[in-house]
Amino acid sequence: MAADYTIEKLNVRLLQLHHRNAKSKLRGLASEYNQRDAGFSLLEVLVVIVMIGVLSAIAIPSWLAFVKRQQVNKANDAVLAALQDAQQEAKKKKVSYSVSFRTDNNTPQIAMYQGSTPTNWLDLGRDLGIKPKQIVLGTNLSNLNTNSGSVTYASAFNTNAPQTITFDYMGILAPKTNNNAPDTDLKVVVAIPQAGNNSAGQVKRCVIMETLIGGMRTAKDTSCS
């Protein structure tokens, strides 16, 4: 009986050892399999690279177009703000205020001032991170304070001759120097330049002054032509 009991205990011990060894072997095999399967195959890497390239080719042009539209929108907002500020200052101080526009060395510039000669030119969009040649600026007017009082309705982009809008002491459009009534439907246009030159492309934003009392509105694209 004692011998049978001893043999039974030995068998149980052997089964336990066999079970432990089997589990250890299984863990070793699983670890070896995971190590072999941990990386990517060359084909998988190539497929991922091709997918990234296709998505980039689709997304990048759309993103760049969005950024350019945002730049034009912000520059047009700056033009509108300058005109509104000049109109308010004219009414508040009871003196004439002007806003002039020009392009100097491919850089659109704007000046708001009292008097006849601007000296405080600022690069349009300088505070917005807009660099030269990223936008173009044009108007459909020459200079409202010239003796002839003529207005050219073909938009003139990239001219270094100041183009000016003046508000009188009541905040309305000032008469021309020949005392004729000022013209209306005046436009100040900001646009994305065409590739390879400085003329306006199809994406445009503008401020339009429609009435003698200086009413303003904004428009875009074909409405700015």
What's the count of strands? 9
Helix content: 25-40%
Percent strand equals: 15-25%
**Roughly how many Å apart are the termini?**
113 Å
Shape, principal axes of CA atoms? elongated
What class would the helix/strand composition place it in?
A: alpha+beta
User: Can you identify the CATH superfamily of the largest domain?
Assistant: minor pseudopilin epsh domain
Work out the radius of gyration: 37 Å
Low-confidence regions: 143-154
CATH architectural type of the largest domain: 3-Layer(bab) Sandwich
Can you tell me the number of structural domains?
2
Whole-number mean pLDDT: 77
Q: How many helix segments?
A: 2
Reconstruct the topology from this structure.
Layout: H1 2-37, H2 42-93, E1 97-104, E2 107-114, E3 122-123, E4 136-139, E5 156-157, E6 163-167, E7 186-193, E8 200-209, E9 216-220
Describe this entry's structure for a reader.
By secondary structure, this protein is α+β, with helices and mostly antiparallel strands. It has two domains: 2-39; 75-224, minor pseudopilin epsh domain (minor pseudopilin epsh fold, 3-Layer(bab) Sandwich), CATH 3.55.40. The chain is built from two helices and nine strands; from the N terminus they run ααβββββββββ. The chain has helices at 2-37, 42-93; strands spanning 97-104, 107-114, 122-123, 136-139, 156-157, 163-167, 186-193, 200-209, 216-220. The strands form two sheets. It has a five-stranded antiparallel sheet with strand order 5-4-7-8-9, with helices on one face. It has a four-stranded antiparallel sheet with strand order 3-2-1-6, with helices on one face. Strand 2 (107-114) and strand 3 (122-123) form a beta hairpin. The protein is elongated and about 100 Å long. The N and C termini lie far apart (113 Å).
